[in-house]
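new request in #modeling-help
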Amino acid sequence: MGRLDSDLEDLYRRRHGVFQVMLASVTGGVESARDVVQEAFAQALRDQDGFRGEGSLEGWVWRIAFRVAIGSKGSGEFAVEQVPEVAFVDASSDPTLAAAVRQLPPQRRLAVFLRYFADLSYAEIGEVLGIAEGTVAATLSQAHRQLGAALSANQVMA
Amino acid sequence: MSTYEHDLLTARFAALAPRPLPGDWDDVVDRAGALRRRRRRFGRSLWRGGRRRKLVVALAVAVLVAAVAAAAYGTVRVLFLDKGFIGLPPVGATPSAPESADLVLHWEGFTATLPPQRQAKDFVRAWVYADGRIIWDRRPHSPGPERGIPEGANELNSGYLEQRVTPDGLKAVRSAVAGLFDRSRTLLETFPTDDPWPGSASESRLALFVPGGSEVPDVDPSWGAVEVRDGNRVVRLHWRGLDIKDTFEGTIATPEQLSALRRVDALLTDPASVLPPSAWAERKVRAYVPSHYAVCIDSSPPKDASQLLSLLPARAADVLRSKSRTRSDGEVVEAPNVVLGRSVTYCSKLTTEEAREVADALSGLEPEPGWRRLGLAYRVAEPVNNLNPTRIWFEPYFPHGQFTFSGPFG
């Protein structure tokens, strides 16, 4: 087994649950998200030449996973203009947060999901979305401001 | 956005996270192989294409969508917590499953295995189960922003956290500890498995002596104990620093014993760094969410249970009165010139929902000082004659049907 195989297996075992949770917000369900995760890691295993080592292995797999999730047949890389719509699978226990998140523009919303569901750092989010870390910081800052305003209007933030 | 707001948002997102399904790496490998084969077949047959292929694809998509929709309909939303917590879990948190499991190994001690940024020892406890669960907690030797566990509840206390190893991973853990026992056979203590275990490490007077002291930073694990199920008995080994050699019986560790101890210490303090990926069923750290809590109330001088319950708010007392309770006697309590008897602790087993009801009823009481970042505890009555106060506190039940003490040590 090659080094990349082993790293992919390690990544999968550590993070497949997080991938599923995040991708369920794209596919609409955890079962379909699991299928996407399985397929994404399978593609990563198969197309190892596609990983050029310029970023992190996880960032590369996330981009494959998003491409699989949105059914893109492109070049093998998730492109920033393909920002998928993300939403909570079941927001019934916190409709206020769901409503506030729904008001965010798609890319801002995706950045928030990557931050809070996938637990990615600003740098990792930048890598996944193909944007600079500073742009991620600005995007999340705007999102936080917007969310803060919406949630404090409902007096539930603090 | 403040850190507090950030944490709130994190918690609210966590509460809406769907429960992931089990992973299956073999399936990934199979799919990768199938993809390679499919690519070769497609290379040969792409020229065919046409309406028939489109129809097959459309039918497959329809079947997939129907299957996913049907599966999603039956999904029960559950919440796993990625961070430890203090006291009771958030409403809706999914308990660790299965509720019961056989304990195969318990470890506790000051660890010598530390991330590089730390200078002093952390206190680590780990419970390892036959189903592969490792439940652990860790308390930094001294608090500080850099000393907490990333998944921990706070900088002083990780809370109880959970990971899972595969059967092979479990075998690796057990064999490492067995190696330690082989080298320390003369110091082993045994007791029947039907005794509550883990036992009390402080009761033993038999120890393997290791360099260093119990409380000072050094390079060796200088205080601790490990217990392992061995058929119908439990085997226990203690180790202590040389500074308290006079109060214990035992032998000084040989270099081989010390080396074995360091290996086991590293394995149980930071298994994620030691065990290979194939040893993990779930390496990601999650909070251990129990199904039941022990609600305990102690008093010195002793009072009977009905006296103690009468001190509680009525709703809390009602819930606890309806439950059976165990009684354990503690150390002898002495006031000036008179022995007042032993302290006494009563504990009742409650579901998490019942525990939450009791906690809600107690919320008007003062939290017990010293427990704030360690556990959920309230002061029921102030100390009399410089004795201990009367306290009520909540302890999670572990899968082996016991609970431990989460409050301040010593």
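bot summary: Residues 177 and 264 of chain B are 6 Å apart (CA to CA).
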